[in-house]
Amino acid sequence: MAIAIVDYGMGNLHSVGKAVERLGYEALVTGDREAILGADGVILPGVGAFGDAMEHLRESGLDAVVKEAAAGSKPLLGICLGMQLLFSSSEEHGEHKGLNILPGKVVRFAPGELKVPHMGWNRLEFLQPENPLLAGLDAGHVYFVHSYHAVTEVQSDLLAVTDYGHPVTAIVGRGSNFGMQFHPEKSGELGMKLLGNFLALT
């Protein structure tokens, strides 16, 4: 089973690819439309700023490819910034339009007593444990690094949250499209099980 990891010039491609291979799948790091749409599943990674990432996606034409993949039945997973890109817009360094696969907005953590960026291990709370992405798993800790967080418009898109002064979107999903704000490949046993559950959907 081949999993396309979308290469648009921003993302932790190597570590995600290695994690996919450890779970017994072929990792195909590519920016080619046919390869992405022909894969059994698609992962959209991301590290950096929202606006820069969307610019890279648009310039390469991969924004349309990811949207096309999301409109089909193959599983799609956004990781960290890749999850945020699935939403309608972001206020990071100005207003930027996202892929609009999931309705909602990415906003900055409010200034206060908590440190920004939110960095470290935080516990997940599963809101929809019956979802196949969460099947057979017990809630535990995963690794976050982010200064902005997604606010979903549709409650049913929210699969798991973590607490950082208030409930923070951690996992989203609608149909075959999913997102994880944390890095599953850096989140120990639970992270790898979550990634494995996603890959099993292919």
Distance between the termini: 8 Å
Strand order of the largest sheet: 2-1-3-4-13-12-11-8-9
Radius of gyration based on Cα positions: 15 Å
Tally of separate helices: 6
Could you describe the 3D structure shown?
This protein is an alpha/beta fold. The chain has helices spanning 13-22, 33-38, 50-60, 62-71, 81-84, 188-200, and strands at 2-6, 26-30, 41-44, 76-79, 87-90, 96-97, 102-108, 118-126, 141-146, 148-152, 158-163, 167-174, 177-180. Strands 2-1-3-4-13-12-11-8-9 form a 9-stranded mixed beta sheet, sandwiched between helices. A hairpin with a 5-residue loop joins β5 (87-90) and β6 (96-97).
Can you give me a brief rundown of this structure?
The chain contains six helices and 13 strands. The protein has 202 residues and is of the alpha/beta class.
Set down the secondary structure blueprint:
Layout: E1 2-6, H1 13-22, E2 26-30, H2 33-38, E3 41-44, H3 50-60, H4 62-71, E4 76-79, H5 81-84, E5 87-90, E6 96-97, E7 102-108, E8 118-126, E9 141-146, E10 148-152, E11 158-163, E12 167-174, E13 177-180, H6 188-200
Parallel strand pairs: 1-2, 1-3, 3-4, 4-13, 5-7
Antiparallel strand pairs: 5-6, 7-10, 8-9, 8-11, 11-12, 12-13
What attributes characterize this protein structure?
single chain; 202 residues; alpha/beta; 9-stranded mixed β-sheet; 4-stranded mixed β-sheet; 6 helices; 27% helix; 34% strand; globular; transferase
